[in-house]
# Entry
Amino acid sequence: MGSKRRIAKDILPIILKNRMPEQFYVEPFCGGCNMIELVEGNRIANDYNEYVAEMWNALVNRNWQPPTEITEEQYNDIKANKEQYSKELVGFTGIAVTFGSTWFGTYARNKRGTNYAMEGRSNLMKQVERLQGTIFTSSSYCDIALPKNSIIYCDPPYEGVAGYKDKFNHIAFWQWCREKAKEGHCVFISEYNAPNDFECIWQSELKTNMNAKYETKPVEKLFKFSPTNVQ
Ligand SMILES: C[S@@+](CC[C@H](N)C(=O)[O-])C[C@H]1O[C@@H](n2cnc3c(N)ncnc32)[C@H](O)[C@@H]1O
# Structure
């Protein structure tokens, strides 16, 4: 859920269009790092989920090798006793060995006996190469130390879609975006809807298996703060 890989080729050229050399690209909600891995140069990847952030840090900066197998028994023990395991292992287990990339959803298994840990591991190892040089942090989006005039791409938990670790205050989030834009950052947001003072600068109908849950097909949109839109 939530991976931006399929739309990256459409929205990244828009987001990076006026990027200056050395200008930082910041993702406060990096999750699976599917977008930021395609960006070059100065980058900060942040996620509130300290286990996921530490997994990335360990993979990219400490050459950590994830396990090649995680049994259902191990999965349940890691899920129930997170403090007894390294953060990177908890992060890996919570996102790579569960169905639909939901944080500690259902243990991934099928009749063919696919080794999901092995698959997850090899997918992550492919990303590691592309993420060299990225700074990884873990805090709430509003506490990130932002370099001046950054490009900020936000892919927050979507409003009205369940499945995240903690409750998310959408009103406070939009307010933070306004403030950051006024401070001189370029702020882009992926969401289905936004307040009136945010302009939709790109949209496309989503073709995902999540569609079954919705009465109408969700339209993936990219917004930018545009104070002139306020009536
Ligand atoms: C939609 S996912 C990001 C998906 C990612 N861009 C990708 O393509 O794989 C949203 C992420 O926001 C994180 N998150 C939730 N609340 C947060 C907060 N207050 N601050 C920072 N990250 C948060 C979640 O842990 C989750 O990884």
User: Anything to note?
Assistant: The radius of gyration is 18 Å. The pocket of S-adenosylmethionine is lined by residues 2-4, 28-32, 34-35, 47-49, 52, 140-141, 155-157, 164-165, 168 (CB under 6 Å). The helical segments are 5-15, 50-61, 72-80, 87-96, 116-130, 170-182.
